[in-house]
TrEMBL record, chain A:
<dbReference type="GO" id="GO:0005886">
    <property type="term" value="C:plasma membrane"/>
</dbReference>
<dbReference type="GO" id="GO:0022857">
    <property type="term" value="F:transmembrane transporter activity"/>
</dbReference>
<protein>
    <submittedName>
        <fullName>Amino acid/amide ABC transporter membrane protein 1, HAAT family (TC 3.A.1.4.-)</fullName>
    </submittedName>
</protein>
<keyword id="KW-1133">Transmembrane helix</keyword>
<feature type="transmembrane region" description="Helical">
    <location>
        <begin position="58"/>
        <end position="82"/>
    </location>
</feature>
<dbReference type="InterPro" id="IPR052157">
    <property type="entry name" value="BCAA_transport_permease"/>
</dbReference>
<keyword id="KW-1003">Cell membrane</keyword>
<feature type="transmembrane region" description="Helical">
    <location>
        <begin position="287"/>
        <end position="303"/>
    </location>
</feature>
<keyword id="KW-0029">Amino-acid transport</keyword>
Automatic annotation (TrEMBL), chain B:
<keyword id="KW-0813">Transport</keyword>
<comment type="similarity">
    <text>Belongs to the leucine-binding protein family.</text>
</comment>
<keyword id="KW-0732">Signal</keyword>
<dbReference type="InterPro" id="IPR000709">
    <property type="entry name" value="Leu_Ile_Val-bd"/>
</dbReference>
<feature type="domain" description="Leucine-binding protein">
    <location>
        <begin position="26"/>
        <end position="375"/>
    </location>
</feature>
<dbReference type="InterPro" id="IPR028081">
    <property type="entry name" value="Leu-bd"/>
</dbReference>
<protein>
    <submittedName>
        <fullName>Branched-chain amino acid transport system substrate-binding protein</fullName>
    </submittedName>
</protein>
<dbReference type="GO" id="GO:0006865">
    <property type="term" value="P:amino acid transport"/>
</dbReference>
<feature type="signal peptide">
    <location>
        <begin position="1"/>
        <end position="24"/>
    </location>
</feature>
Length: 313, 414
């Protein structure tokens, strides 16, 4: 029982981390209509900025300042690169963001070296929140989860309950109309892009200390974040949350399970046959865990191409 | 004569000339490594080490009075790129191919070289595998022109387990946690295989995806539930770091026995989390202090950093190549790969860790292994931290040796 509890908790926290990064991505997608390949690079930048700032300002100020810096980078990227490319169509925007992600990764390698850097939790945060049947649960995990939930609530309230939110949402769906009503749509886009980048930067600053901060971290998380956004429905905030949790929890449960397809076939009396065939049938669930998100994505794309909560086709 | 004709005939003449002068060309060695992209960090270390040692060989006269020419090819991290680059290297006249990172790439290179040699008898090329440690490379896939200068999974795991057993830290319950590909499976099999000999129980075996997992806490939970004292893992890079961090975060009291804990950045990133964990590797900076320090300092003067991870092993492997080249005489068409192969089998090199040699039966290097532990007492610190590796047990080349695999059916040229 404790095992399952832990697995659920772990999965939820990992899901919340995925959400922190995919929230910005899905916002930007809703706005630009293309996936921002450089988004996970903002996550990486957040971690490296916080790592650089930590010795100067201390951990707390570092994780506040790093996202602000990343927001600055995001705004510059939107204002001076993407806006110029926008009129040439989606393919160009995609290529530019892809190129940007490569450039950022190489620049990180030039400045900080090719290997993982020494960005760690401050000692005062490195303690166990509670202990269940002999396993400590790190407090920092709960802290990361808390930040993600706080972020979700803040964005949700901002988008649904404020005037700014109304303008942003309408600018996403009917930019020309909103512009005709006298709102500065390019400014709104720039703001959304900056905030999206800052969210990813915050996730990086917080998670980089707990996992590892290395030049590949954008690549490692990037793929998973795209899966989340596609499964959740492109442009849907609630969908991103649901998909993040779904992927986090299935992943965590699958790792702990020794389930094999062959066991299922034993129920219908085909166990022997399955053992003989081997291959996929006798593969343990735990060794397939990291593949499951892609399987979920495939399933969603087949059954519901717009994603769990997506509205756009 | 039109210009086009003129250009053609000149080009043809140049071809003729270059073919005629091929015999006088220096020996070409091609490094086919991952020099760009996310996996480049290890590939660039191989390059540093190769450049260093080829430089040494050239200082002492090169081959046949000519300096050896080192060609570099970027395989971009995958078997497909490697296959392409190996072809390019051979067509540029390389006689020896060097490659190290990833057993998956090594598997491709060794097959390509084998096939090329079948089709081009008398004009073979040699493949020196600097670091692909999967068993099949000197097992089912072994062939006469493949030489491995790094340890393999059996050597790593058995020396590691022996050393940990002797230090009294192995415990009774061992968990095998590995990456799901040839190397990880080999580490798992060898861990299970040693259980009876050393009197421990393998409580559970897990194979997981390679470098895709961010959150290792579910795996740590399994380790805890299985009641393991020790985790033996062949994991490298992030898979190793995240596993150790998750384990320490969960307050788990297990000891890790690893093969690649000395990768740069690992100790810096893990910090105190890595303390007390074990590693079995062909090098430690504190063994034979006099010669080793001289080597360390010289390496630092040339490359700018102390040798670590794959670098010492690579240098030692090329020392052996250098010794073999001393035995071989250059012929008119340059180097005869078959002669170099024989010379490699007969050569021994004196490294700071002790003598090394090549076993003729499967072309696996026989070298000393050092079981070591992460501690603050180390003389050379890793990654500017207070930690480094202190030797626990030096296992001589003879004791580290593991039997030739039955699956290796090497055809020797008659």
């Amino acid at each position: 029982m404790d095992q399952i509890l832990f697995a659920l908790l772990n999965g939820t926290i990992y899901g919340l981390l995925l959400f922190m990064v995919s929230a910005g991505l899905t916002l930007i997608f809703g706005m630009m209509g293309v996936l921002n390949f450089a988004h996970a690079s903002f996550y990486m930048l957040g971690a490296y900025f916080a790592y650089t700032l930590q010795p100067l300002t201390g951990f707390w100020l570092a994780i506040i300042l790093a996202p602000i810096l990343v927001m600055g980078v995001g705004i510059l990227v939107e204002r001076f690169i993407l806006r110029h490319v926008h009129e040439h169509g989606h393919a160009h925007e995609l290529l530019v963001t892809f190129g940007l992600s490569v450039v950022i990764a190489e620049m990180i390698k030039m400045v900080y070296g090719k290997f993982a850097v020494d960005y760690r939790l401050p000692a005062e945060l490195n303690f166990a929140a509670f202990s269940l049947s002999g396993i400590d649960y790190p407090f920092y995990r709960l802290f990361m989860g808390g930040i993600a939930i706080g972020m979700f609530i803040a964005i949700y309230l901002l988008l649904t309950k404020t005037r700014v939110g109304i303008v942003v949402r309408s600018a996403i769906y009917r930019p020309q109309m909103v512009e005709a009503l006298g709102h500065n749509v390019p400014m709104v886009f720039m703001g959304v892009f900056g905030i999206g980048a800052a969210l990813a930067g915050l996730a990086g600053a917080v998670a980089g200390a707990f996992y590892t901060t290395n030049p590949n971290m954008a690549l490692e998380l990037g793929v998973m974040v795209f899966v989340v956004v596609v499964v959740g429905g492109l442009g849907s905030m609630g969908g991103a949350m649901a998909a993040s949790l779904l992927i986090g929890i299935t992943n965590s449960l699958a790792v702990g399970s020794d389930f094999r397809l062959a066991d299922l076939m034993t129920w219908v009396g085909m166990g022997g046959f399955a053992e003989e065939v081997g291959g996929l049938l006798t593969m343990r669930m735990s060794s397939l865990a990291a593949t499951l998100p892609f399987f979920i994505m495939l399933l969603v794309l087949v059954l519901r191409p717009s994603g769990l909560m997506g509205e756009k086709e | 004569m039109t210009f086009r004709n003129f250009a053609r005939s000149t080009a043809a003449m140049m071809l003729v000339f270059s073919a005629a002068s091929a015999g006088a060309e220096p020996l070409k060695i091609a490094l086919v490594e991952t020099l760009s992209g996310p996996q480049a960090s290890t590939g660039l270390l191989y390059r540093d080490a190769v450049k260093y040692q080829i430089g040494k060989i050239n200082e002492s006269g090169g081959f046949g009075g000519e300096p050896i020419e080192l060609l570099e090819f970027d395989n971009q991290g995958g078997p497909v790129g490697a296959a392409d680059r190996v072809r390019a290297a051979i067509s540029e006249g390389a006689d020896v191919i060097l490659q190290g990172s990833s057993s998956a790439v090594a598997g491709q290179v060794t097959e390509d070289v084998r096939k090329y040699n079948l089709r081009n008898a008398g004009n073979e090329v040699l493949y020196i595998n600097l670091g692909g440690e999967a068993m099949e490379l000197t097992g089912a896939k072994c062939h006469y022109y493949h030489f491995r200068t790094s340890p393999n999974a059996a050597i790593r795991v058995n020396t590691l387990l022996d050393g940990m057993k002797e230090a009294g830290v192995l415990g009774d319950n061992v968990y095998a946690m590995n990456q799901n590909y040839s190397w990880g499976v080999d580490v798992q099999d060898n861990t299970v295989g040693a259980a009876e000999r050393l009197g421990f129980t393998v409580v559970e075996q897990t194979l997981h995806d390679v470098n895709k997992i961010q959150d290792f806490s579910p795996y740590v939970q399994r380790v805890q539930a299985a009641g393991a004292d020790t985790v033996i893992t062949g994991n490298w890079s992030n898979d190793l770091l995240l596993l150790m961090k998750a384990s320490s975060g969960a307050g788990l009291d297990v000891r890790f026995g690893t093969a690649f804990l000395d990768q740069p950045g690992n100790i810096g990133n893990a910090g105190a989390v890595a303390e007390g964990h074990f590693l079995s590797a062909p090098f430690n900076a504190e063994v034979n202090p006099e010669e080793t320090s001289a080597f360390m300092e010289d390496y630092k003067t040339v490359t700018g950093h102390y040798p670590s991870y794959v670098e010492p092993t690579t240098v030692f492997g090329l020392m052996l190549l250098g010794e073999a080249l001393k035995i071989v005489e250059p012929t008119e068409d340059g180097l005869k790969a078959a002669e170099l192969a024989v010379a490699l089998e007969n050569a021994t090199a004196e490294t700071p860790m002790g003598p090394i040699s090549m076993r003729a039966d499967d072309h696996q290097i026989i070298q000393p292994m050092i079981v070591q532990k992460v501690s603050t007492e180390a003389k050379y610190k890793a990654d500017d931290t207070e930690f480094g590796f202190v030797p626990i047990k030096v296992i001589s080349a003879v004791d580290a040796e593991q039997p030739v695999q039955d699956s290796c059916k090497m055809k020797r040229p008659s």
